[in-house]
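for the writeup, i need someone to sanity check this before i put it in the appendix. the sequnce is what the collaborator sent (i think, or maybe the updated version? ugh). structure was predicted straight from it, no edits. if anything looks off just tell me and ill rerun, i have time this weekend
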Amino acid sequence: MAAIRLYNTCMGKIDLHGMTVKEALDTFTAYYNAQLARNDRSEIEVVHGYGSSGEGGEIRKRLRRLLEGHPARVEFRAAERFSTNPGATYVKPILPLPTAADQLQSEILAYCENARTESKVIGKFRRYGDKQVKDALQSLVKEGLLRRFPKGAYIHYEQV
């Protein structure tokens, strides 16, 4: 994982340059949730860069999409709306954001509304990695949210 650059100011600041999109989103979510756990609701300056495409970098796009998906949990403003820096986003924490593991479990539950084989579930969520998908399946079964059952030669999962 790339080095995380944090700054101590009255406003938190986190720099996501040099990370993959997944690393950047996981790092941001952990930083955001840790700040809320300290009962600190001060604004966070997220430096993500603008990207070389001329349309904004992928980290910027995905971060803002994540934030837009949780309007009751976070407020944010794009830096380019009030300054000349399109490579930052200002985030005001309200409630904790779901982690990647939370998101994966939520997606698996929705996908398993109808019974699915284990291999179909793993294939559908391959981007998370096989181990994470299997761990999420096991956790959902343990929590009683998914039912695991054999059907023929295959293991199936279905939402309870």
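The mean pLDDT is 88. The CA atoms of residues 26 and 100 lie 7 Å apart.
thx in advance!!
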